[in-house]
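Need tokens for this chain, all 328 residues.
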Amino acid sequence: MKLASLKTGGRDGTLIVVNRDLSHYVTVPEIAKTLQQALDDWSNLAPRLNAVSAALNNGQTEAAGRLDYTQLASPLPRAFEFVDGSAYLPHVERVRRARGAEVPSSFYQDPLMYQATSAGFLGPRDPIPVTSEEYGIDFEAEVVVVTDDVPMAVSAEQAGDHIQLVGLINDVSLRNLIPGELAKGFGFLQSKPRSALSPVLVTPDELGEDWRDSVLHRPLLSWLNGERFGEPDAGVDMQFNFARLVAHAAKTRPLCAGTIIGSGTVANEDEGKGASCLAERRMLEIIADGKPKTPFMSFGDSIRIEMLDREGVSLFGAIEQVIERHDP
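Here are the structure tokens for all 328 residues:
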């Protein structure tokens, strides 16, 4: 099934069930008012939501409304946790190579993750507010999963069973603020503003054979200002699958229902597949020519992020955003 949230209904939105071709939806207040409420009691409520989804896809729901992406909030307008990884090591390797640094051997055996902001996510058609272009505005196309309640010290073998939803994210980064923050040795803060989730999140069974071994095996497409930017395959070169990422995040603490786990920027060894962020393209230019030529994003620039199934149908809907000047 496919789930989304309308902007109406308060800070956590209104849960809706969306049909497979992303054209119609129904509200389900008798089951759960919000997606977080559904996740809190997933084992009991998921079968009821699935029944609604089946009826909707079979054309048996008379009250279905036409889906308008501009009326959608993030599927989870706010989440208890967002833990982002960097599971595609070609991205890490290029970033470090461009500045003459080696990749520590531990990166190949232990996931690289950080605690990201989760107090609010932008809607899939909301603008990205930024105060200054000097911050180095960048997008990052990633895959995410959402869990139910995950016990502390769960094994990677067990962790996969706790992945209940899959989607995409534009993990916005302000690149020029990152070096100063990392130099303090205490992680990201100002350089990682609010991100945007895909219009819908889907259950793994919706993905068929393209979801296996806790990895999503489809190209992740991005367009910058209407021009194709990259199409790396999310199923290739993922060093740690999502089950391993969930287990890593839960090693010393339980994860509550509704926790979002990010893959990190999708990247392939094959440079011909393009990139999923400007920083990586700039790093490839530095490696090739000694300096970058691609600028970071400016006010008015647009980004589109989407994934298609084998028939060319959008799986999660497209994230489409424009950089907007924010005046304090």
